[in-house]
Amino acid sequence: xxxxxxxxxxxxVANGEYVVGNPESCVAxxxxxxxxxxxxxxxxxxxISGPCHTENLGIEKVIVNYISNPNIRFMVVTxxxxxxxxxxxxxxxxxxxxIGDDGGIIGAKGAIPFMENVGQExxxxxxxxxxxxxxxxxxxxxxxxxxxxxxxISKDPGASxxxxxVIDLEGKAGEAGEDSGDxxxxxxxxxxxxxxxxxxxxxxxxxxxxxxxxxxxxxxASGVQSESLTGLLxxxxxxxxxxxxxxxxxxxx
Length: 253
Known about the structure:
Blueprint: E1 19-20, E2 27-30, H1 38-43, E3 48-50, H2 57-67, E4 74-79, H3 87-97, H4 120-129, E5 132-137, H5 142-154, E6 165-167, E7 173-175, H6 197-252
Parallel strand pairs: 2-3, 2-4, 4-5
Antiparallel strand pairs: 1-3, 6-7
């Protein structure tokens, strides 16, 4: 029987939309943009299964939950690909290439494939812990998913040599139960990242500029229309005067 280790206290440590099975199972399943597949994966023996729609925070939560359970050694990526985010392809790129110095997933094709809260060390741990990523992207065949889960279980290599790694989604990493040195963190409750105020400021400035342009264009259009109406009015008055004068002179005579 394969050796097993205790996952982090309160596992899964990051909240989300998922179904939890046997924490000693070696298989975890991501169902991308599909729903209704998770129960089938759990019934087949998966440790955890759930959808993942975003190529940044969504992937981060998956990573956090996987590396906090050293028993998970296989990852099955299935379900319909998420358009725009292309989350399935981003998972594959992350597993194969890791992330760059800027936190971007190397080779990812999603809209914003950046790991803002999970750094190089947790990503490397994920790459080393998962011995195989099974690509079943765009498949919603429950029978095939269950068979894949069972095939992985049949070749369970046992838990990873390293103990559970717990991170708080702000990039502070440590072994399970280890003090990070920056106060305390409650396992299972992810913290909220600070808003990017500089980005918000630039966005507001851009919006102010665009509103100014629109206001100017409307003003010019209004001025042209006003001048046109004034010219039409003067023309009408002059026409009436030129017609009226001969009539008045004729009547007077």
